[in-house]
# Entry
Amino acid sequence: MGNLHGLHRSHHAGQQSLAPPAPPSSLSSQSGPHMAVEPYCHLDSSLRSLAGKAEGFGRAAVGGLSGPICHVTSLADEGPGSLREACKRPEPLWIVFDVSGTISLSSFVHVSSNKTVDGRGQRVKITGKGLRLKQCVNVIICNLEFEGGVGPDADAIQIKPKSNTIWIDRCSLKNYHDGLIDITRESTDITVSRCHFINHNKTMLIGADPSHVTDRCIRVTIHHCFFDGTRQRHPRVRFAKVHLFNNYTRNWGIYAVGAGVECQIYSECNIYEAGSEKKTVFKYITETAGDKEKPEDGFIRSEGDWFLNGAKSCLNHEGKRHVFSPTQHYSEWTVESQTEKLKNYLKHSTGWQNLPLPSDQHPTSA
# Structure
């Protein structure tokens, strides 16, 4: 992985606590604790270098690595050259855009298995409805904008049911009628990174409702994301195991992170900056699982988090005993200390980026 700027900690299998801070060996001798190094910085060097490079639970996602390049040549909702046409094809594809502009969707675009939807090189905004990942595996979604979804079930990215091995990276998401990202109904092994969430109420839901006890399988990593004035659900979790690290959440309207029935949330070196009124960071939400009689909430473990402007963690310290360790599930990840440099990076370098489309080392065309 690319090195992160600031102070680094590396994690390895079997480790039970944070290792002492140490600069990684891959940094040059000129780099120091105040040197900014972008995460995943080398992954734009070639088109398919994203494949398999996510950190966390979605690390195995290679998307359309084994397939040809498929060019979206039309901003139409459907038909030849459209995003919808590309996403429904059954074979592995690395989907790129030859056009910039807005794609207005009348219904969800269903993304089939083994696809990369790669928005680098253009500025593509999706509106009306969003992308639905339904019973699919191995998907990467990168560098898109989502804005202005309409309808009672309009999510920007909806992952349900039974989808897995997914990476959502560098997307800007705002102002949908329902959620921005929903992960429910036994969908698991997902990483969300470098995304910018803004102007929204119910931002991210993980776990459908207390009756869906099979959501106990859900595992999600969220890192280097910027939750920018969104009201709640950063995320809101039921049943799932969720690892949050190096995110910046500011000026929420109700609470920052919601812990519902049986969930386990490991919050590591995040920045929580309260607005002028609402100060609660971690909210425990009591619910009754569908196969139990006694109501309960979730568990949260906070390690190295930074609480600013009067933010109140409101932690129940039982979480330290009940929350999973990420080392039980993946051998290493990179995390840095919470600093002003990290905050500034996340303010300016998350969401859609004006990037050229990298060249393909093995150029093909569909």
